[in-house]
UniProtKB/TrEMBL annotation, chain A:
Its cofactor is Cu cation. This is Cytochrome c oxidase subunit 2. Its EC number is 7.1.1.9. The keyword Membrane applies. Residues 227-319 form the Cytochrome c domain. It comes from Melghirimyces thermohalophilus. GO terms for molecular function: copper ion binding; cytochrome-c oxidase activity; heme binding; oxidoreductase activity.
From TrEMBL, chain B:
PROSITE patterns: COX1, COX1_CUB. It is a multi-pass membrane protein. GO terms for cellular component: plasma membrane. It comes from the Bacteria. Its main location: membrane. Cytochrome c oxidase is the component of the respiratory chain that catalyzes the reduction of oxygen to water. Subunits 1-3 form the functional core of the enzyme complex. CO I is the catalytic subunit of the enzyme. Electrons originating in cytochrome c are transferred via the copper A center of subunit 2 and heme A of subunit 1 to the bimetallic center formed by heme A3 and copper B. One of its GO terms (molecular function) is heme binding. The lineage of its organism: Bacteria, Bacillati, Bacillota, Bacilli, Bacillales. This is Cytochrome c oxidase subunit 1. SUPFAM superfamilies: Cytochrome c oxidase subunit I-like. GO terms for biological process: electron transport coupled proton transport; oxidative phosphorylation; respiratory electron transport chain.
Amino acid sequence: MTGCEEPDRTVFSPKGEAGEGSLDVIMLSIYIMTFVVAVVLAIFIYVLIRYRQKPGDNSIPKQVEGSMKLEMLWTVIPIILLAILAVPTLTHTFSLAEEAPKDEDPLRVKVTAHQYWWEFEYPDLGIKTAQQLHIPTDEKVYLELTSDDVIHAFWVPELAGKQDLNPGSTNKMWIDADEPGTYEGRCAELCGAGHALMNFQVVAQEKEDFDKWVEKRKNPSSEPKTAEQKAGKEVFTQNCMSCHAIDGTQMKTKGEKAPNLTGFAERNKIAGLLENNDENLEKWMKHPEQVKPGTYMPSFDFLSDEDMDNLKAYLQSLE
Amino acid sequence: MATLVTIIVFILFLSAILTGGYNKELMDRFRSHWLWDWITTVDHKKIGIMYGIGGGFFFILGGIEALLIRTQLFYPNNDFIVGRAFNELLTMHGTTMIFFVAMPLLFALMNMIVPLQIGARDVAFPFLNAMGLWFFIAGGILMNLSWLFGNAPDAGWTNYVPIAANEYSAGTGIDYYVLGLQISGFGTLMSGINFLATIINMRTEGMSFLRMPLFTWTSFISSALILFGFPPLTAGLFLIMFERLFGANFFDVAAGGNPIIWEHLFWIFGHPEVYIVVLPAFGIMSEVISTFSKKRLFGYTSMVFATILIGFLGFMVWAHHMFTVGMGPVANSIFAIATMTIAVPTGIKVFNWLFTMWGGKIRFTTAMLYAVGFIPTFVMGGVTGVMLSTPPGDYQYHDSYFVVAHFHYVLIGGTVFGILAGFYYWWPKIFGYKLNEKLGKWNFWLFFIGFHLTFLIQHFIGLFGMPRRVFTYQPEDGLTLINQISTVGAYMMAVATILFVVNVIYSYRHRVPVGNDPWDGRTLEWSIPSPAPFYNFAQLPKVRALDAFWHEKMKGNKEMEPAEPLGPIHMPSNNHLPIVIVLGFFISGLGFVFRSNEVGALGLIFAFLMMFVRSFEKDHGYHVETDEVEKVEKGVKA
Ligand code: HEC
Ligand SMILES: [Cu+2]
């Protein structure tokens, strides 16, 4: 395989403890199973070569009923192999289900899945964001997962296995990253027409960078500066405010139907999917349905070119 | 207005059927047509053949759906079939392959062979048997009509709520799924009960339980699983039906419902279902391997008990499909350990097959090739199954292509290879001529290589982070090449399937009649003429050992010793009511799908009325006289 065919998110290169926990069990099971397959194949190939009927040989082989000894052998050995596998399986099942310690004050994030986008709320920090989950490195982050509509699943292969997000109840899991970086995530439970594109990213940062990010989110720069941006904000209040919220402005909106756009310019993807640049932003706003089938974001191809440019200028100024 | 018209047409139709109206001459013409004979048949062999034709037809449909899926995934961000349309394809592919291909094709073989293997002249309830067939066909047609009217179901074969609720799946797609499966499910349940009764009651003299061929045994256990596994599905489907059609609330969180209930109901059925379709395949493999190694099955008794154990444990492990649902570490651990234990009896089977061949004289016919190819393939599916049983591993594998690879190894490597082996093996018994072996070998190798090309690599597609049921992936994901390899493999399997169809036609055109026992077989079915006469056994045979016919051959006898003198044979008579009753259910299903409750209710009333008619029918069957039996027997001998 060539260089361009490097898979970008394999479970074989975990970047955190949770991912390593899964990988431990996966590797052990692969070793054991390779052994089993090898034994079967060895007998299989030997038998097929050795006991072919030779031409002209019409003799009748001995009719064997069975063999108590052999049958005991292939009952007991698998049991032993399974017992070996069961031990780390159980320990990791419990360690991966560990809940947030009560006495300390760990970082908690409330993850809410919506048909086809992700909402991340930090209840202790009072911030809300979407599509990109920021976490500090070298620290367990405890997620509380729920869904606003149908069942989704949260999966960042390099950081941890998946967990379902069910409407009406909350699931828990923890993740951690030991290297800064952006890790691709996917929705893993069929959730409708846009399921294949319900992508998101986990952005892991060193502790101080993360704290800076938190500060910025708490005091966002959301007011327009140039005339163009001011006009853009107008367009936004008229068309978008019913769904989208932007913190740090005087807009009166709950904006819970769509991603919170505070600090939008800092996201490196639009809708978790397209690279964040002006061209893609226009494409998204004009024809979201073409980018992500089934999305609830309406098309804004009726906006004039001027309005569109102003809007883009405003959105790209949100930091 | 439309309802009124439907009702009137319906009443006319009803009275016509009830009064036997129309034109008498026309009816007679109908009755003497060969098609009428097939439609009204209660002969298990003909029913088996029709199951085969139906299953084969849906196999082609499901296969085309698979090809479209793989074509869409040939390169990243392809826009050939996206969004809802893609979800419809994957839903219909899965549902079709499980319910309208795997199940009916196994019923085809069970129908054709089980009565012959136990020395019976028919199944216990021939009328029910015919009804089961028509239920399957009605369900399959109903479900596929969704392609023509509006939209197909789009929530996956698992049909999880809420995406299957009205709110998230607009239109009538899911209704087709619910009613189609409900209808075909009735048939499956009936057939399951029928085979249980048949195998318990209709064994010939000396055919004790521990002398039954393995295929009969596995069919028996599989039928028991149907008996206990299908009711939860039926219950679940009823809940969804009432929620979608009549505004009930079972799963809607806002109204106090819980969507997880459906997941449990579905998998309490769904896991045993896997064994329902794979156990009979195990049985076929056991027969084929033993015959073509010229050896008795190694460890027969442990094979039987392993089958029973697998069937039993199959009910204890459903929640391993739900490790990520949030049941907590305790429940996950319990189901993990329970799941691992299934590996033990399955392992026993694999080694018993290997040691059946050990010391034998192996003949590589096409049937044997499929059986031999099955062993490593199924072992692969088995070991990935054990891998999936560990929750920490499953958190990564779940709902990714790894799972897709795993269950295709089990379902194709197990069930489909088994079915194909079964067809190559028993074809001469049913039709009186063999399938062409040369084409058969091409068919096998193409299918085998195509299969591994498609699915081996899918394990890695999953481990490299691609979820299942997605219509695309991104160029930077690094998944392009491996997806392309998989697609190429899928096309190879398609070519192999076409080759099988060609083989069927070619072999029919160039048929060479075979004798009773073309493969040097071991079990009862090889002691009677090929094709089997409609009454199966002129005289019921007396069984004196396991591998009854082989036992006689080894003693130098050419035939089984009869357990009764030659005499008149009692046979059930043909009946048109099975298809008529099912027609009522079909109309009812269609009515409910179109949200016309009147038609729905009328269809049901009609069906129940017809059942009532059946209850008062004097159907004593008829006798085949001794001289006619003698004539038939001489005919085939000459
Ligand atoms: C009916 C509600 C609705 C309205 C009105 C609406 N949007 Fe959206 N928008 C959404 C939803 C829902 C999403 C999430 C789409 C997805 O990713 O599936 C979204 C996503 C977006 C995104 C990507 C967000 C991210 O974090 O990547 C941008 C940018 C956006 N909308 C801009 C706008 C603008 C600008 C307007 C006004 C011109 C607007 N939207 C009006 C519902 C709406
Ligand atoms: Cu989703």
